[in-house]
Design brief:
The chain is mostly beta strands. It has a single domain, classed as Rieske Iron-sulfur Protein. Helices cover 0% and strands 37% of the residues. It is built from no helices and nine strands. A four-stranded antiparallel β-sheet has the order 1-2-3-7, with no helix packed on it. The structure holds FE2/S2 (inorganic) cluster. The site of FE2/S2 (inorganic) cluster has 11 residues, from loops.
């Protein structure tokens, strides 16, 4: 995926093989992270970051877009990070 496809201060959900999705975020300019977007509460898809926070629309848990750490319950654990490496103008799974 192209680095330019990931909006700064936000991110996007990316379709992966096998019906899976990946949340790729750029919480600060030039800082890229990827997470499994399944909320650790009961598995709803979380939204890309807005106003500095990742929110689950189902019950309102929030997560830190730089680390995936949970900020607000009901989730009790953070999002699972997926290794992502920048290679020039592209982002590839590490
Ligand atoms: S499934 Fe995300 S807060 Fe409940």
């Amino acid at each position: 995926m192209a680095v330019s496809a990931v909006p700064s201060g936000s991110g996007l959900l990316v379709d992966m093989p096998g019906n899976a999705q990946l949340l790729v975020v750029q919480p600060r300019s030039g800082e890229f992270r990827a997470f499994n977007p399944a909320c650790p509460h009961v598995g709803s898809l979380v939204n890309p970051p807005a106003a500095g926070v990742i929110t689950c629309p189902l019950h309102g848990s929030t997560f830190d877009p730089s680390s995936g750490a949970v900020r607000e319950a009901p989730a009790t654990s953070g999002l699972t990070e997926v290794a992502l490496v920048r290679s020039g103008d592209d982002l590839v799974l590490g």
